[in-house]
Amino acid sequence: MIKQYKNIQKGKLQKYTNKTTLNFGTVGLKALESGYLTLKQIESAKQAILKKINKKGKIWTKVTVNKPVTKKPLEARMGKGKGKVSHKMARVKGGTLIFEICGLSREAAISVFKTSGSKLPIKTGLFY
């Protein structure tokens, strides 16, 4: 693991990318807009998928949680630098795949991704 001596700045997200290809599965859940996803949000969507597919198919998670987010203590005064790392998030550009599934029919995959997409704070769609 690389040691990090500086806290990372927020930065900007790109609007949309068209570089989407299915690497492992047959149907994918695609982000239609840019945004940030926390580990809890990704895991809740993954649990919804696993509950629906019921060991019939295989799932791949394509996003990694790698951006640290800092937060200052509640009673801290102004100044005194940037806060400590509180949690990590994943940057998601519009057009990137979040999940991939194989081993299910299209109708089943549509219903699975409809429930899991509702767990995420960004707009999602299907990718064949």
Short description:
The protein has 128 residues and is of the alpha+beta class.
Topology (SSEs and partners):
Blueprint lengths: L26 E5 L3 E4 H15 L4 E4 L5 E5 L12 E9 L4 E6 L3 H12 L6 E4 L1
Antiparallel strand pairs: 1-6, 1-7, 2-5, 3-6, 4-5
**Largest beta sheet, briefly?**
4 strands, antiparallel
Q: Determine the strand fraction and express it as a percent band.
A: 25-35%
Rg to the nearest angstrom? Answer: 17 Å
Elements, N to C (H/E): EEHEEEEHE
> What is the name of the CATH class?
Alpha Beta
**CATH H level, superfamily name:** Ribosomal protein L16/L10
Query: Which descriptor suits the 3D outline?
Result: elongated
| Residue runs with pLDDT of under 50 for 5 or more positions | none
Distance between the termini: 36 Å
What do the pLDDT scores average to?
87
Helical segment count: 2
Compute the number of structural domains: 1
Describe the protein.
- The mean pLDDT is 87.
- This protein is α+β, with helices and mostly antiparallel strands and 128 residues long.
- The protein contains two helices and seven strands, in the order E-E-H-E-E-E-E-H-E.
- The chain has a four-stranded antiparallel beta sheet, with helices on one face. It has a three-stranded antiparallel beta sheet with strand order 2-5-4.
- Helices cover 21% and strands 29% of the residues.
- It has a single domain, classed as Aldehyde Oxidoreductase, domain 3 (Alpha-Beta Complex).
